[in-house]
Amino acid sequence: xxxxPEGPETKLPEMARQIRELQERVxxxxxxxxxxxxxxxxxxxxxxxxxxxxxxxxxxALIGKALLALAFAYLxxxxxxxxxxxxxxxxxxxxxxxLAWLLIASRAASSERLTAGIxxxxxxxxxxxxxxxxxxxxxxxxxxxxxxxxVLFSSFGLGVSWRKNLDAVAWVATLTGALTxxxxxxxxxxxxxxxxALLALAxAVEVSACLEHWLRERWIIAALTDLAIVLVTYLxxxxxxxxxxxxxxxxxxxxxxxxxxxxxxxxxxxxxxxxRGFVITGFEIGQCVLAFVIAVWGALRVAQGHPAxxxxxxxxxxxxGAACYTVAFLFRTRVQETERNFYTYATFxxxxxxxxxxxxxQGIGLVLLWSALAVIxxxxxxxxxxxxxxxxxxxxxMSAAAVSGxxxxxxxxxxxxxxxxxAGGPAWLVTIAAVTAYLLVHRRAGGADWNYRLAALVFSAxxxxxxxxxxxxxxxxxxxxTPHYCVxxxxxxxxxxxxxxxxxxxxxxxxxxxxxxxILIALATVKLLVQDxxxxxxxxxxxxxxxxxxxxxxxxRFAAD
Length: 561
Prior knowledge:
Layout: H1 8-33, H2 51-81, H3 87-106, H4 113-137, H5 143-160, H6 167-188, H7 191-210, H8 218-236, H9 251-275, H10 282-303, H11 307-330, H12 339-360, H13 364-384, H14 387-404, H15 406-414, H16 425-444, H17 450-478, H18 484-508, H19 512-535, H20 538-560
């Protein structure tokens, strides 16, 4: 008998279709509600291994392969010791074998950092003991050859890690090579080849950093290089010469090391900031400063203070300072797009110019130079509208005042027993520079921002104090017969100057001059207690009190208006 049209055979496809539609509706609802579809649990018969067991097995396998690699390296060592292989052939095969494992480490996927790291460590465990025994025990290699192999190994590690950005390979190869170089520098007492090797490694790492690769650990290589050059400079410049057992190092070679250190890190910073537009890092700022200190200190120490060496070091700093100012203010480069880069280059220029001029000049010549620079930078800031230039002018002005002895002379005139000699040339130079610089800053600088107000206050206070100091010097020359009245004349200078500036501030609405009179009155207060009341003439004390009291009465009125 034939089956009925409505039998089970005809209903099964319809039921399967309805079930699929129901599943699709449930999945759509789950997606709308944000829920995740929970996969069906795997059957206990086909359950996968636990993750911990899988990771442990992977690490164990990697360590096993590393041990097999080391076993083959020891086989080469044994064959060499048993003279089945010539010594130089065994060493060469070991070096090639270590480089091969470094290449194998670079073939790991970028996600397999553990694999790459263990293979790179295996490579170093093959190479470093090999080089140590070949150099220290067997003396099969020259120090230059050993240093070159270490540079090759570290540079090769940097190169092969580049394509997949394997930081583990670069880290292990470079740091192991640098540390081994440092240890061999001490152990062999041959300074020149291993110092050159550290400089080469520093250059390789900085080139890599300029290409934005492996930046985090640059400071370790830089620190090792700095320490090596400081050590070499110290040992070579000892009065008794190099200690016994050290290979000879010429002073020109030491100077070359210092210059190379400076060139490497300065070039890297310039390329990264001015060339590629990166923001200068704290490491680059600190390392450039340290490289300059080491180079200048080392050059002077090597030359033993010879005038020609001082002139060369000073001229070099002047040239670098001018270059920093040029990059910061004149060239329309990417440096100006980043304020941190701009301020860094400008500050470098300031420090280098101050240091260079202190090396090359002294006395009134140095005061004249810094006073002139204060006026020049104040004028440049006025023209360019840059407060940074005006602040640099303030630094040059303060430096000129410090070298001229204006501070001690000011304290001697107004805070201790008054001296009776006239003001010297340096004090007058600083006075003229301070007044001129303040007039330049005040004329073009407008607005009420705190940066301008603070800079203008510094310039105006410096101008007022140096004017008072110079006027006191003139007063001393006018009263050589009655020196007791000089004390009263000093009080008159401070109070009259304070009242005059307060009046000008009120008439011209000059913000910074509102505060300068109070600085002068504070100085007059201390002076009245220290000089006038303790050692002044009675009639002079009366005049001082009248002047001081009048100033206290008038200043608040001018400020209120």
